[in-house]
Amino acid sequence: MAASRTAEVVRETKETQIRVTVDLDGTGVSKVSTGVGFFDHMLESFARHGGIDMTVETKGDLHIDMHHTVEDTGIVLGLAIAKALDGFKGVRRFGHAYIPMDETLTRCALDLSNRPYLVWKVAFQRPKVGEMDTELFKEFHHAFAMNCGACVHLETLYGENSHHIAESGFKALARALRQAVELDPKTLGHAPSTKGVL
């Protein structure tokens, strides 16, 4: 029987208190509470389309702004997924997805390389979606990539509606990650790299 690919990470600072649990082999069930409504919606979508069972409990200094809440949640979610992957042994490693959403098309290519990087080619027409600053979406994806050990290339090829641009990005990341973390019978027991380790 395959080992459980689950993890829990708790991180507390003067700015945020965060607890995240993940199960990479779940069905996309999530319980998310960050205090930022649109961000909760994006994380729920990420869990659903990534096939990851996920709990996110974030209490942040929202009386200042949403920056620490969003960025730090990205950090802890990335750490939890990396922990559940346990050295990336036995996974496909690479994933990609194209996600259309009405007038918007976004693509994500992802490598679980343990060489984190973010290429971000996403432009928003408006400064906010709901109450959330659109500049925070890059902060989340950067924090996630750096702490998950993932090389993430995310690009909105075209689009106008800021809600669609943001949501298609989260869905594209989720679907690419879902493909990359899938167990590969040809690499079971070792890292998918000529180096033998990632």
TrEMBL record:
Keywords: Amino-acid biosynthesis, Cytoplasm, Histidine biosynthesis, Lyase. Transmembrane segments: none annotated. Gene3D superfamilies: Imidazole glycerol phosphate dehydratase, domain 1. Its EC number is 4.2.1.19. It is found in: Cytoplasm. InterPro entries: IGPD_sf (IPR038494), ImidazoleglycerolP_deHydtase (IPR000807), ImidazoleglycerP_deHydtase_CS (IPR020565), Ribosomal_Su5_D2-typ_SF (IPR020568). It holds the Pfam family IGPD. One of its GO terms (cellular component) is cytoplasm. The keyword Aminoacyl-tRNA synthetase does not apply. GO terms for biological process: L-histidine biosynthetic process. PROSITE patterns: IGP_DEHYDRATASE_1 (PS00954), IGP_DEHYDRATASE_2 (PS00955). It catalyses: D-erythro-1-(imidazol-4-yl)glycerol 3-phosphate = 3-(imidazol-4-yl)-2-oxopropyl phosphate + H2O. It is an enzyme of class 4 (lyase). One of its GO terms (molecular function) is imidazoleglycerol-phosphate dehydratase activity. Pathway: Amino-acid biosynthesis; L-histidine biosynthesis; L-histidine from 5-phospho-alpha-D-ribose 1-diphosphate: step 6/9. Belongs to the imidazoleglycerol-phosphate dehydratase family. This is Imidazoleglycerol-phosphate dehydratase. The gene is hisB.
